[in-house]
Specification:
The protein has 92 residues and is mostly helical. It is 39% helix and 0% strand. The chain contains 2 helices and no strands. Helix 1 packs across helix 2. The radius of gyration is 14 Å and the shape is globular.
Length: 92
Amino acid sequence: MTQVLNAYRLPLFGSRLIEASAGTGKTWTIAALYLRLVLGHGEASPEPTAFRAALMPAEILVMTFTRAATRELSNRIRSRLVEAARCFRGLA
């Protein structure tokens, strides 16, 4: 079963498992979801288990299967956070 994930519309509640082949955008999607959690984009969700406020990075768990994937994902998330901070500061 193939399901396309929209990182900007996916409801932010509960746990998520993202499985896909190489080069399909898993890292991009996870980084986008992470940024949405940090920015508090789950607040408007009617789900009772939705995140009601922005989360701190220490409150978010992301797991991968290899050290290389962990490094890549960490770097990508860090870049997203820096980019967002620059936008909010008017430096972008």
